[in-house]
């Protein structure tokens, strides 16, 4: 087990709610043989009359199950491998019908609210105050670090991760969906990995990595902001505390030093091994995920 040399609080590509249509990777209810074979990811919200009776919260007007309308515009010449990557026209390699939520409703089954809204009808404004990490009190810093550590060790209640590409998603026997549980924080890491991973072109061929789907484009800033917003929402639900917010770090204040790399925050450098975090930091006990990138690119497997 290795200790992490860097803790990143950044990113997301696939848990985006574009045009009020919920596209998430992968809702637990949709990681089934039936959903994958039918291409339908429209989970029930309150199925009082049996399975399929309240897809996307339709009975309460929260949303409806609709055909996915993916962006069909061609890629530029920088990406010459159209049709070779599961992320193209997301999520149509897996599902062609998903939930489209109405108004301020959101989520893979329209069971939550859009960011900034709350209440049973998602009609109440919710203000989240984002503070400078260095301005937090000792108690507030402790609560923040404890929340991250809890997220690292708490299984995500809504989403699972795919461990194989779409053509292998049902397993060798065609009846065993290739998904695994993942913790809330590791899901945050995994979605970033999935968004930037190279395009697998087949066994014996070098994977294509000339285009970074998350960083080399106009969505760079909003993409990362939404990724952080999703982590914040997941931690709020984990803590049952809608007031929880991720603080920000103004890295310019430390100039040439990392002023949050202390044992009460993100961890100082170990005195025994300069590549590791101090054993006095809770983060020194974290296991690193998604680090075997060469294996993933060579074998066509996914981080798990």
In short:
Helices cover 20% and strands 8% of the residues.
What are the main properties of this structure?
304 residues; alpha+beta; globular; disordered N terminus; transmembrane helix; 5,6-dihydroxyindole-2-carboxylic acid oxidase
- Order of strands, main sheet, comes to 1-3-2
Share of β-strand residues: 5-15%
Number of domains: 1
CA radius of gyration: 20 Å
Name the helix and strand elements from N-terminus to C-terminus, one letter apiece: HEEEEEEEHEEHHH
Structural class: alpha+beta
The first-to-last residue Cα distance is 15 Å
Largest sheet: 3 strands, mixed
| Low-confidence runs | 1-23
Shape, principal axes of CA atoms: globular
The residue fraction in helices comes out at 10-25%
Q: Tell me the number of strands.
A: 9
Number of helices: 5
- The overall pLDDT average reads 88
Report on this structure.
Helix content is 20%, strand content 8%. It is an alpha+beta fold and 304 residues long. It has one domain (18-299). The strands form 4 sheets. Strands 1-3-2 form a 3-stranded mixed beta sheet. A two-stranded antiparallel sheet has the order 4-5. A two-stranded antiparallel sheet has the order 6-7. β6 (117-118) and β7 form a beta hairpin. It is globular, with a radius of gyration of 20 Å. The two termini are 15 Å apart. 29% of the residues are buried. Residues 1-23 have low confidence and may be disordered.
Topology at a glance:
Elements: H1 33-38, E1 40-41, E2 63-67, E3 97-101, E4 105-106, E5 112-113, E6 117-118, E7 124-125, H2 138-153, E8 161-162, E9 179-180, H3 184-196, H4 220-239, H5 293-299
Parallel strand pairs: 1-3
Antiparallel strand pairs: 2-3, 4-5, 6-7, 8-9
């Amino acid at each position: 087990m290795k200790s992490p040399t860097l803790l990143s609080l950044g990113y997301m590509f696939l848990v985006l709610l574009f045009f009020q249509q919920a596209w998430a990777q992968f809702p637990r209810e949709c990681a089934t043989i039936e959903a994958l074979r039918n291409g339908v990811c429209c989970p029930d919200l309150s199925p009082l009359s049996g399975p399929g009776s309240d897809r996307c919260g339709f009975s309460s007007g929260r949303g409806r199950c609709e055909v996915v309308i993916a962006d069909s515009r061609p890629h530029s010449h920088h990406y010459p491998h159209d049709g070779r990557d599961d992320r193209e026209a997301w999520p149509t390699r897996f599902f062609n019908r998903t939930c489209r939520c109405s108004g301020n409703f959101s989520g893979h089954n329209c069971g939550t609210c859009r960011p900034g809204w709350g209440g049973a009808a998602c009609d109440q404004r919710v203000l989240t105050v984002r503070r400078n990490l260095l301005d937090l009190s000792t108690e507030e810093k402790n609560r923040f670090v404890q929340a991250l550590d809890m997220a690292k060790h708490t299984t995500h209640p809504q989403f699972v991760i795919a461990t194989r590409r779409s053509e292998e998603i049902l397993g060798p026997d065609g009846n065993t969906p290739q998904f695994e549980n993942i913790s809330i924080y590791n899901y945050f890491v995994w979605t970033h990995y999935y968004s930037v991973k190279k395009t697998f072109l087949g066994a014996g061929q070098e994977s294509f990595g000339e285009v970074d789907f998350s960083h080399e484009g106009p969505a760079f800033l909003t993409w990362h902001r939404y990724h952080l917003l999703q982590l914040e929402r997941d931690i709020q639900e984990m803590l049952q505390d809608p007031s929880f917010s991720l603080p920000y770090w103004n890295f310019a204040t430390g100039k040439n030093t990392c002023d949050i790399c202390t044992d009460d925050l993100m961890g100082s450098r170990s005195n025994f091994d300069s590549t590791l975090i101090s054993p006095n930091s809770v983060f020194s006990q974290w296991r690193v995920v998604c680090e075997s990138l060469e294996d993933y690119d060579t074998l066509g497997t996914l981080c798990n």
